[in-house]
Amino acid sequence: MHRIHSHRVLAEKIHEFWIEAPLVARKYRAGQFVIVRTHEFGERIPLTVVEADANSGRIRLIVQEAGKSTILMCRLQAGEHFLDVVGPLGRATHIENWGNLVAVCGGVGTASLLPIVRAAAAAGNSVYAVIGSRSKDLMILEDEFRAACKEVRVSTDDGTYGIKGFVTDVLRQWIEQGQKFQQAIIVGPVIMMKVAAALTKELAIPALASLNPIMVDGTGMCGGCRVTVHGKTYFACVDGPEFDAHGVDFQELILRNQAYRNLEERALHGLLDKGCQLTAQLEGAKHA
Ligand code: NAD
Ligand code: FES
Question: Rounded to an integer, what distance in angstroms lies between the CA atom of residue 117 and that of residue 96?
Answer without folding.
Answer: 12
